[in-house]
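Good morning,

Both structures are done.
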Amino acid sequence: MKDLNFEDFRVVSNITLSEIATDIVVKGNDEKKDENLDRVRDKISAIQNTMYAHNKYAVLICLQGMDTSGKDSLIREVFKEINPRGVVVHSFKTPNSSELEHDYLWRHYIALPERGKFSVFNRTHYENVLVTRVHPEYILNENLPGINSVDDINDAFWQQRFAQIINFENHVVENGTIVLKFFLHLSKAEQRERLLRRLEEADHNWKFSPGDLKERALWDKYQEFYEEAINKTSTQNAPWFVIPADDKELARYIVGKIILDEMEKYTDIKNPELDDDIKENIEAYRTALRAEK
């Protein structure tokens, strides 16, 4: 067993997903993980309260992972102590007809967090270089100039999209949004067990779709395109973190601790100073309130 070094999860050079563990053994039991997460999320909540008053930064948390990787439960557990006004979750599904009338980043841009708040993207703008690479025919729904068939979608098209995504992220970071991206790295064997649980436990049956098995059959393609997307777009402004996701409790703690560590680097996030006039008259305001009957 070992202690965690949270910087180990940051992608700072090219990775090979097949060489990265999906499960690690660490000191402590599940109860210890829960206690650690409790402390972390309380601190994240306190930072968000201060950030709301400070009103200069926003935070965008991006979560990607294969089906059953634990995105929904991670969001619930990591962010449940944040004031409801301070966090908004967006789950991006197949683009609807209105969204397809705009460029592929539009629906993500309008979902960006307001200053002082967190937004969590449950699936993200990276679906546009992941699912669409596994199923390039989906690109035809975007009705793009010069793209009339799948044969028109070449490597240069995808490299351009990576560049557009980096530009998008750089733009929002330069305007005060802190961007952190997490890939929940699940093993194929663990996904099988989680899919079986969906079938065997009645209260989880609703989560299962036959489409889950069709996408599972494309596992290797997804891994290839996740690996390339992460390698192409992990930047200093918007880093990727690859999180071992076979142990849900541990994954939640690691993500929460990384968010906390990154937020604590912003030492300028402080409560605003009171106006001098208010400071000078605080005692008078107290006296007036105490004098009320």
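Second structure follows.
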Amino acid sequence: MYIDSHAHIFFKEFSEDFADVLRRSKEAGVSAIIVPGTDLDTSRQAVALAEAHDEVYACVGFHPHDAEEASDESLGQIEELSRHQKVVAIGEIGLDFFYDYSPRERQVEVLRKQLAIAVRRNLPVVIHTRDSVPESLEEIKSISEKHREWRSSGYEKGPVQGARGVFHCFSGTAEQARTLFSNGFFVSYPGIVTFRNSSVLETLKLIGYGSILLETDSPFLAPVPLRGKRNEPANIPLIANKIAEVLQTTPSVIAESASANTRHLFSLPRTV
């Protein structure tokens, strides 16, 4: 069984065939879908989907693109939303220095405020790092050192102790990944692993599969041979197959390890 650790299935791209998307997901062996919000409205949508569908779990937070819209009042509402029983993380939060839709200083400020929410709520985080892996790494190292109690107890032991979060769609180096692992973070990979001459494959060869998650980042980043089309959770096996090929193992091994890591990080039921 697979778990899609990152899919924005509240997007309008899914409005006309949502039931079919979930059906295809189940047929592909996907037992759970983690849906991160990107602002207050989409965080509410993610929670509503989680309430309506047993296999869906929500994350709540402000994406760096929307950092300018993250007032103290709306961040307070994010914290209240995080108390919902099916909210499993604060996310998608982070830094995006590629598009810079919000000023960098504001992105950093909002990231820090949301990391503080995660610490107060003892929840993991889902981190976005477009052209900002070093800067994001420094932020999580700082919060992890200041709050060693964050996610340090009350959870199963796993390959990443503490399980504080995940750097989604990870594009960093093996050295950066190992620093993340030592600070209680996983890394996750979407369809970029299937792209021709993808730079992440060399990193994968060096870090192996023990501390990774699988994601689609739907509706974005559809894997080959579907590149350019709308992505959806049913495509997770294509990603696992490529990682298994690169690491010379079987898709079932990748699925089992990544699913166990995802359950550990988000404190999902053992039955998922």
